[in-house]
Write a structure and sequence with these properties.
The complex is a heterodimer. By secondary structure, chain A is an alpha/beta fold. Chain A has 4 helices and 5 strands. In chain A, helix 3 links the parallel strand 4 and strand 5. The chains are: A alpha/beta, B mainly alpha.
């Protein structure tokens, strides 16, 4: 059986870090987007006590509307608390999707190219 | 020829044939005058079909470049000189950007993917208004949507948007040709005698500047049409996502007497 969307969460330097892994075929299920969305919001709400900012680290080769929808719901939650969302590991082949939907031009939404460490460094510029 | 034009339909004429015709006519700036004279005196039935086909082909190329340019200019992480060059050449409509507009676009995409059962992104390497047009086409047969004035209005605005984008780019290319011909005469070390139609330098500069101005006006118009098309598609999306009431069965339907 295919693996369910997996969201691992931790707090690093006060920032919530969500590691998202999923099987590409698993995302074809009609409820996959809803499950991913719920998992990400639940973990974020549990851990975002110190700072509202969040880093999402993606480990996937394919992106569709379920993942973008989940990221957007998380973004709305974060921005309502005046935080920032940084996404690392977004597959470059699917950048057009984010651009076309206008997600990349939203205030407080950023794509990081340096992985988890790079995204955290961008959120904490004073950190060595 | 009349049949050919009728078979194209308004979309093709507005979106492709119009901008392509602008470019075809602009070749008069470069063609030798003997060829222009031959074209002008040749029978219409001999000249018109190849010109129409050329205009149609050029129009499709221009519309594609305009769409790709619009998509490119909004790319994140694009080098600024490249972005500037793309914005100079292609008309780039400014679309409203906030959480509500992104939310609506995402819902349109999700609904489109639900209908087509295709999870890949249909907006790859194409402007987002293509997604709206495809989405409207997919839902156009549904109860409550079929024959909706909103559907008709959105399609009309889409045609005008394509025309404004294509004509904006075509006019910019005409301006480049007109100003290029003046520059060729004064700046480039090339033979100055060319058997082209005589047009004074002042007229060429005027034509070039006029085309640039018209192109920028069309870009503003295209922005308005792009926003209008989006606004007209959103209500259709909400209407489509509404659960439709199940048809009343004869057993539960109230009788005329009650």
């Amino acid at each position: 059986m295919a693996e369910r969307p997996m969201v691992k969460a931790k707090v690093q330097d006060g920032v919530v870090v969500l590691n998202v892994t999923y099987d590409d075929e698993e995302m074809l299920r009609p409820t996959a987007g809803e499950e991913l969305r719920a998992a990400m919001l639940e973990k974020y709400d549990d851990l975002a006590k110190q700072r509202p900012d969040c880093v999402v680290v993606l480990d996937t080769d394919q992106v569709g509307s379920p993942l973008v929808g989940a990221l957007f719901e998380l973004y709305k939650r974060i921005i309502s608390r005046r935080g920032e969302l940084r996404v690392a590991g977004y597959p470059p082949d699917y950048m057009e999707l984010l651009n076309a939907l206008g997600v990349t031009r939203l205030r407080g939404f950023h794509l990081s190219s340096g992985g988890e460490a790079g995204a955290l460094a961008e959120l904490n510029p004073s950190r060595p | 020829m009349k049949d050919f034009l009728q078979s194209l339909g308004l979309t093709e004429i507005f979106a492709y044939l119009g901008p392509g015709a602008i470019l075809v006519f602009s070749t008069a700036l470069w063609l030798p005058y003997w060829l222009l004279a031959a074209l002008a005196t040749a029978p219409l039935l001999l000249v018109a079909p190849p010109l129409l086909v050329a205009a149609y082909g050029l129009g499709i190329a221009v519309a594609t470049v305009a769409g790709v340019g619009a998509q490119w200019s909004s790319r994140a992480g694009l080098d600024e000189p490249v972005r500037f060059a793309v914005r100079l050449v292609c008309a780039v409509p400014k679309l409203p950007e906030n959480t509500t507009t992104v939310d609506a676009r995402l819902r349109i995409l999700e609904s489109f993917q639900k209908h087509t059962r295709i999870t890949g992104a249909p907006v790859d390497r194409r402007p987002v208004w293509d997604l709206y047009a495809l989405y409207r086409l997919v839902i156009s047969g549904q109860e409550g949507i079929r024959g909706s004035p909103l559907l008709f209005a959105a399609d009309s605005v889409h045609n005008r948007l394509l025309f404004a984008l294509g004509a904006g780019l075509a006019l910019m290319l005409v301006a480049a040709q007109a100003l290029g011909r003046v520059a060729w005469r004064y700046l480039l070390p090339l033979p100055r005698v060319y058997p082209a139609l005589y047009v004074s330098d002042e007229a060429l500069v005027l034509l070039g500047m006029g085309c640039v101005a018209a192109s920028f006006v069309l870009r503003g118009v295209a922005s308005r049409f792009a926003a209008q098309e989006f606004l007209l598609t959103c209500p259709l999306m909400w209407q489509e996502s509404k659960p439709h009431p199940a048809p009343a069965s004869p057993a539960t339907a109230p009788s005329p007497s009650t």
